[in-house]
What does this fold into?
Amino acid sequence: MEREKIIPKSYPSNVLNQNWSQRPIYNKTNSKKFLKAVNEMEVRDDDVWLITLPKCGTTWMQELVWLVLNNFDFESAKQEHLELRSRFLEFEEVLYDGEGSIIKYSTEMKSPRLVKSHLPLPLLPSQLWTKKPKVIYVFRNPKDAIVSFYYHLRRYKETTFLNLTDYAQDFINEDMLTHQHFLHVTEFYALREEPWIYYTSYERMKSDLRSVIQDVCKFLNKNITETQLQQMLHHLSFEEMKNNSKTNHIWEAQQLCRIFNKEIEDVSFIRKGKIGGYKDDLTDEDINKIDNWMNNELQSHNVGLDDLLLQK
It folds into this structure.
């Protein structure tokens, strides 16, 4: 996918004191019209925004938050695709048919909206950092995320790489994308103490999902009973999520098949969900190369991986 440098209409200078003019921002070519619509998008006071890098537990947290916002309505959750209950902002551009608003689906959602996005902070709606609605951010060990994203691209037949080693090498060599990887997370990590931000990690969700559910409920000012908590732990377990047709993005796959005349053989979006699962797929040489890349990036941001993963 070709990328181009983006200069947004405005920067979140009121939430982070940094030189935004020096912050590299890239997005796919010919996306300026969409990004302008996003920048000008109306943000509602009762919105909840879920922001992540790709393959960092977005779907898992998305289902969790939707249930909290909707009074733990498990029956409705089992009847409707997650991506229709909670819109993926960037997918709106894919669905845009040339009429009306580019982001009309999110705009038409009833409140309270749960909107997910992989966009970095400076490309999100400008009202996000002025109105400051609730924002949830989830990070994941990049080694697991890289492997997961490779298989995700293979599912949609969008990768030209024959093997994971070549893909991982390209990922860490692509400066304008990989440099943004840690800018994306460290900007939200720097805001983690703000009352409108809830920052967590995939690893923490795996190790203590009960506490994360309780944290999210407290963050969103929602009560939860022990019975509801047990239901959540069951519904959000890996086995249930993987076997749930409403959380495997089947609807999105169907839209891509329709729009781009594609065939998608593997309908399961959720793959393994393991912590450290990269060890099963990456070679020792791959891991060393990714570790060196991560260490250089982390040093430049003066932060450790354990800090970002909340493992200290």
